[in-house]
Amino acid sequence: MDDAAVLKQRGYIMGINLGEGSYAKVKSAYSERLKFNVAVKIIDRKKAPKDFLEKFLPREIEILAMLNHRSIVKTYEIFETSDGKVYIVMELGVQGDLLEFIKTRGALHEDDARKKFHQLSSAIKYCHDLDIVHRDLKCENLLLDKDFNIKLSDFGFSKRCLRDDSGRLTLSKTFCGSAAYAAPEVLQGIPYQPKVYDIWSLGVILYIMVCGSMPYDDSNIKKMLRIQKEHRVNFPLSKHLTGECKDLIYRMLQPDVNRRLHIDEILSHCWVQPKTRGLSSAAINKEGECSRGAEPSWTPETPDRKSATKVEPREEARPETEPETKPEEETLPVQVSRQSDTTGLNGEPLSKETEEEALPQPSETHT
């Protein structure tokens, strides 16, 4: 049977194509049971790479079945047919993704950015508390619902963190995600703490939200890495950002992994906290909390650089996601969240790559 017939049997009326890659596609569909539109990701095992089928897909499905948070795209159903196709039925981001939103409307006002960033940070805290890391946080993976609330999607690079005998989280060696959002330790091929990597990506996302441009130019990886390691963060003068907002970004884009903020420190930061929004003259201490004495530090502001409305999103080097070995027609009911992974909702394929332990070359980290 074709996809439309398979979905019809399950109570879904297939709609338009939302995106397509080499071995997966995302379709819209109307759910007769739920009485609203959903997104259906369809993965063809016969076309998918071995590394994806054996590693990343099973890991993703396992994690999707665990998640239940209002700021994470819901997964309603996962099932597989006897001809090797996997169907993941998810919540539809009806307003598109955050990148397109910013490219169309420009940088967000700080109040709007604060609301959306708080939603995203809450979702990341939920994941980190479960020892789940996303490892592909970027504006294209932040979908917007009908009320423009953030919905975190695409767990194709996610994993459950392992702990050693002493209870400490083990390091990861996999280069995941987009070079433009990747932390310097990941770009250098250094074994990294996955949760700390997520925090760097959050810093890039918040910068894009309030500045409408990328904090670093990833067209030259070596140059970008040098600027990152010097802890240089330039803010456009024209955006008139508050000191608290710049301070939070600066502390998330901290090259020293031992000094980079943790998710709890982000959520308690004075810029994120509604009760302290009026402290425009307040400085922030090293723990990310407001204080009245210290001066926050960042690189002096520079004139506007290239705008995100003109810059095409950087494509990421991603591992080929995972498989799952299930008997034919086995159904896996789920109450979770996620949207497109191998294909973007704008129809552009998202390049997933296999794990890399060495420093990726520029040609491997972006296109």
What's the structural blueprint in terms of helices and strands?
Elements: H1 3-9, E1 12-20, E2 24-31, E3 36-44, H2 50-64, E4 75-80, E5 85-91, H3 98-105, H4 110-129, E6 132-133, E7 142-144, E8 150-152, E9 159-160, H5 184-187, H6 194-211, H7 221-229, H8 243-252, H9 263-267, E10 283-284, E11 290-291, E12 331-336, H10 362-365
Antiparallel strand pairs: 1-2, 2-3, 3-5, 4-5, 4-12, 6-9, 7-8, 10-11
Helix pairs in contact: 4-6, 6-8
Protein architecture, described:
The structure is a single chain. The chain has helices spanning 3-9, 50-64, 98-105, 110-129, 184-187, 194-211, 221-229, 243-252, 263-267, 362-365; strands at residues 12-20, 24-31, 36-44, 75-80, 85-91, 132-133, 142-144, 150-152, 159-160, 283-284, 290-291, 331-336. It has a 6-stranded antiparallel sheet with strand order 1-2-3-5-4-12, sandwiched between helices. Strands 6-9 form a two-stranded antiparallel sheet. A two-stranded antiparallel sheet has the order 7-8. The radius of gyration is 20 Å and the shape is globular. 27% of the residues lie in helices and 16% in strands. By secondary structure, it is α+β, with helices and mostly antiparallel strands. The chain has 2 domains: 3-93 and 322-365, Phosphorylase Kinase, domain 1 (2-Layer Sandwich), CATH 3.30.200.20; 98-291, Transferase(Phosphotransferase) domain 1 (Transferase(Phosphotransferase), domain 1), CATH 1.10.510. Helix 4 runs antiparallel to helix 6 and helix 6 (194-211) packs antiparallel against helix 8. Mean pLDDT is 81; it is low at 276-284, 291-297 and 300-367. The two termini are 36 Å apart. Its cofactor is Mg(2+). One of its GO terms (cellular component) is cytoplasm.
